[in-house]
C-alpha cells in the first residue's frame, strides 16, 4: 500500500513538473511574442516618422539644393586659408592692364570688349623664345586676330580647395567645425609680370627621380607657348652649386632643346646635393636679371628655396620663387603624392618578380629579398608590395622589426616557406634601425647614412635556418638606384605637366615663396614654410594602408600600442589616412 502511494506521489510530482515546465515555456513564448509585436510596432512607427520627415524635408528643400539628405550635424563653420605671398604687396605690377590669354590658339570665342587692353601673342614656325616667336599687340579689336584663346577657367580671388574633405558629425551642437584650405592653382586674369621682360631659371637638386626631365620640359614650354616669354630661360646645372661653380656653366633652354628629354630618365640639368650659397645665388639672379626661379627638389631643397625668396625680398628684388616637390620616397607632407613615385613603384615590380623566380626555383627553402628606397618612410616598399601581390613579408621604418618570438618575422618566413615552398621579402632601406642602430654619419644634404639592412636580414635568415637544423637558399636583390633612374610613366608624365604648368601660372601671376602640388586630387599652391614644417612625413602604421599589407602578407603586426603623448599621424594626405 505504501509502495503504491509512493508511486502515485512520484507520478503526481512528475506531472506537476511537466505541467509547470510547459506553462513556463508557454508563458515565455507568449511574453516573447508580445515583445516582438511591440518591437515591430515601434519599428513601423519609427519608419513612418522617418518617411514623414523625409517627405517634409523634400517639400521644404530649396530648389537649388543638391540631391540627398541634409545632415544638420555635419558642416564647416570656419575656413582658414593657407595664403601665399604675392609680389604685388611689395612691388608694382609690370603686367598691369595685361589680360591673360592662352598662346598660339585661334581666338574664336568670348572676345574681350573692344575697349579692353589685351595682350595677344602669336607663334611663328620656329617656336623659339628669342623674341621672334611672339608679338605684342594692343589692337582694340582682338576678335579679328588669331593666335590667342581665352582660358576656359581663370581662378578667382580666394578660390580654394578644402583640405579636410572627410567630415564627421559635431560632438555637440555648439562645436565650431573648422577646415584648412589651400589656394587653388591655375591661370589668373591679371599678370604680375609682362612676358616680354621675363628671364627664368630652373634648377634640379638632390637625388634623381622619374619625371625630372618632364618638369624641366613643361616649365620651358609653358613659359614660351602659354605666355610667350621673350627673355632667356636658364637651366642651372648640378643643383645649387651650378649658380656659382664655373665647372657647371648654365645652359639656355628652348622648346627645341627640351623637345625629347622627357623620354629619358634622370635630369638633363644634372643634380647634386649641397652647394647652397645665398650670396652667390643672389648674385647670379641679379647678373642674369632673373624674375622667375623654379626650384625642383625635396623638403631640404624647398627650405633653401624659401631662403632665396627671403633674400630677394630683403634686397627689394621683384623675383618669383616657385618650388616643385620632388622626392622618390614620397615623404613631402600634405600633397597626395610626389611625381615619379608611381613610376618608381612600377619599376620595383620587375625586381620583386625576379626575387620570386629566384626563390621558387632555388632549393632548398628559397627566399628572395628585395631592398627598396625609403629612408624614413616606407611608401615605396608598401605600395610595391601591394602592387605585386607576391610578397610574404614587408619591413618598413615606421614599424619595428622583430626577428624571433611569436611576432617574429623569421618564424613567419619559415611558416610561409613550409606552406608554399618559398617566400619573398621586401624591405625599405631605413627599416630595422632599432636592431642595427642609428648612424652618426651624414651625406652632403645632411641625411644620415643608413646601415645595410638587406645584408643583415639575409644573414639572419640563414642563421635562423641553421639554428633549426635546416638550410635556406637566400637571394638578395638591391635595385635601389634602378627604380629612380627610369623615365616617368604615362601617369607621372601627366602629373609633371600639371605641376609645371601651374608653377608657371603662379609665378606669372606674382605668387612667390610657394610650391605646387596635388591635394585631394586638385592642383594647389602651398606656402613653403607650411609644406616643410612637417616633412619628411611617414606612413601611418595604424592606418588602412598598413592594414592592407598585413592582410596580403599575413605577417605578424608588430606595431606597439599607442602611448600617451605619442605623435599623431593625422594628415590631409590620402596616403596617410
Provide structural commentary.
The protein is of the alpha/beta class. Helix content is 34%, strand content 13%. It has twelve helices and 16 strands. The chain has helices spanning 2-60, 212-226, 278-287, 299-314, 341-361, 379-388, 409-420, 433-436, 453-467, 490-509, 528-533, 544-553, and strands spanning 78-82, 102-103, 148-149, 160-162, 178-184, 200-204, 233-236, 251-252, 292-297, 320-325, 366-372, 393-395, 422-428, 473-477, 514-519, 522-527. The strands form three sheets. Strands 1, 4, 5, 6, 7, 8, 9, 10, 15 and 16 form a ten-stranded mixed sheet that branches. The chain has a four-stranded parallel sheet with strand order 12-13-11-14, sandwiched between helices. Helix 7 links the parallel strand 12 and strand 13 (422-428). It is flat, with a radius of gyration of 33 Å. Mean pLDDT is 85; it is low at 104-146.
Descriptors for this entry?
single chain, 577 residues, alpha/beta, ten-stranded mixed sheet, four-stranded parallel sheet, 12 helices
Question: What is the structure about, briefly put?
Answer:
By secondary structure, the chain is an alpha/beta fold.
SSE diagram, text form:
Elements: H1 2-60, E1 78-82, E2 102-103, E3 148-149, E4 160-162, E5 178-184, E6 200-204, H2 212-226, E7 233-236, E8 251-252, H3 278-287, E9 292-297, H4 299-314, E10 320-325, H5 341-361, E11 366-372, H6 379-388, E12 393-395, H7 409-420, E13 422-428, H8 433-436, H9 453-467, E14 473-477, H10 490-509, E15 514-519, E16 522-527, H11 528-533, H12 544-553
Parallel strand pairs: 1-5, 6-7, 6-9, 9-10, 10-15, 11-13, 11-14, 12-13
Antiparallel strand pairs: 2-3, 4-5, 5-16, 7-8, 15-16
Helix pairs in contact: 2-10, 5-6
Amino acid at each position: 500500500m505504501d509502495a503504491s502511494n509512493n508511486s502515485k506521489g512520484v507520478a503526481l510530482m512528475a506531472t506537476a513538473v511537466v505541467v509547470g515546465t510547459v506553462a513556463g515555456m508557454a508563458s515565455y513564448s507568449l511574453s516573447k511574442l508580445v515583445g516582438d509585436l511591440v518591437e515591430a510596432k515601434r519599428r513601423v512607427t519609427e519608419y513612418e516618422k522617418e518617411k514623414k520627415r523625409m517627405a517634409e524635408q523634400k517639400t521644404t528643400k530649396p530648389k537649388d539644393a543638391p540631391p540627398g539628405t541634409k545632415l544638420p550635424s555635419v558642416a564647416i563653420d570656419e575656413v582658414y586659408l593657407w595664403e601665399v605671398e604675392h609680389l604685388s604687396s611689395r612691388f608694382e605690377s609690370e603686367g598691369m592692364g595685361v589680360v591673360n590669354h592662352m598662346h598660339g590658339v585661334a581666338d574664336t570665342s568670348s572676345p574681350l570688349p573692344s575697349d579692353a587692353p589685351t595682350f595677344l601673342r602669336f607663334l611663328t614656325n620656329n617656336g623659339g623664345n628669342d623674341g621672334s616667336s611672339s608679338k605684342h599687340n594692343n589692337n582694340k579689336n582682338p576678335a579679328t586676330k588669331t593666335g590667342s584663346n581665352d582660358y576656359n577657367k581663370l581662378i578667382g580671388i580666394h578660390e580654394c580647395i578644402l583640405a579636410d574633405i572627410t567630415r564627421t558629425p559635431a560632438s555637440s551642437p555648439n562645436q565650431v567645425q573648422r577646415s584648412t584650405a589651400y589656394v587653388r592653382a591655375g591661370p589668373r586674369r591679371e599678370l604680375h609680370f609682362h612676358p616680354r621682360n621675363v628671364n627664368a631659371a630652373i634648377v634640379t637638386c638632390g637625388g634623381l627621380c622619374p619625371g625630372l626631365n618632364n618638369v624641366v620640359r613643361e616649365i620651358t614650354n609653358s613659359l614660351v607657348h602659354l605666355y610667350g616669354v621673350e627673355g632667356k630661360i636658364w637651366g642651372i646645372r648640378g643643383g645649387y652649386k651650378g649658380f656659382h661653380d664655373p665647372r657647371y656653366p648654365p645652359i639656355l633652354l628652348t622648346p627645341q632643346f627640351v623637345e625629347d628629354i622627357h623620354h629619358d630618365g634622370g635630369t638633363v640639368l644634372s643634380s647634386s646635393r649641397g652647394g647652397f650659397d645665398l650670396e652667390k645665388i643672389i648674385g647670379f639672379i641679379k647678373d642674369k636679371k632673373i624674375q622667375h626661379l623654379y626650384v625642383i627638389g625635396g623638403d631640404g631643397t624647398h627650405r633653401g628655396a624659401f631662403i632665396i625668396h627671403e633674400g630677394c625680398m630683403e634686397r627689394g628684388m621683384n623675383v618669383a620663387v616657385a618650388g616643385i616637390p620632388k622626392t622618390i620616397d614620397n615623404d613631402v607632407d600634405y600633397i597626395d603624392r610626389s611625381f615619379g613615385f608611381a613610376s618608381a613603384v612600377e619599376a620595383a615590380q620587375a625586381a620583386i618578380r625576379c626575387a620570386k623566380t629566384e626563390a621558387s626555383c632555388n632549393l632548398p627553402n628559397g627566399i628572395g629579398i628585395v631592398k627598396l628606397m625609403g629612408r624614413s618612410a616606407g611608401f615605396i616598399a608598401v605600395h610595391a608590395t601591394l602592387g605585386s601581390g607576391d610578397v610574404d613579408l614587408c619591413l618598413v621604418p615606421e614599424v619595428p622589426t622583430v626577428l624571433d618570438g611569436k611576432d617574429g618575422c623569421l618564424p613567419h618566413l619559415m611558416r610561409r616557406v613550409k606552406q608554399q615552398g618559398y617566400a619573398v621579402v621586401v624591405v625599405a632601406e631605413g627599416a630595422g634601425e632599432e636592431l642595427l642602430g642609428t648612424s652618426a654619419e651624414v651625406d652632403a644634404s645632411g641625411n644620415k647614412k643608413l646601415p645595410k639592412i638587406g645584408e643583415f636580414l639575409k644573414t639572419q635568415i640563414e642563421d635562423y635556418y641553421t639554428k633549426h637544423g635546416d638550410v635556406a637558399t637566400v637571394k638578395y636583390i638591391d635595385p635601389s638606384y634602378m627604380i629612380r633612374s627610369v623615365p616617368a610613366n604615362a601617369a607621372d608624365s601627366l602629373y609633371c605637366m600639371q605641376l609645371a604648368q601651374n608653377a608657371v601660372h603662379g609665378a606669372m601671376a606674382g605668387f612667390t615663396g610657394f610650391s605646387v602640388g596635388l591635394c585631394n586630387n586638385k592642383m594647389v599652391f602651398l606656402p613653403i614654410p607650411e609644406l616643410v614644417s612637417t616633412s619628411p612625413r611617414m606612413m601611418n602604421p595604424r592606418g588602412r594602408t598598413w592594414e592592407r599589407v598585413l592582410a596580403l602578407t599575413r605577417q605578424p603586426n608588430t606595431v606597439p600600442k599607442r602611448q600617451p603623448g605619442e605623435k599623431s599621424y593625422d594628415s590631409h594626405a590620402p596616403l596617410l589616412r
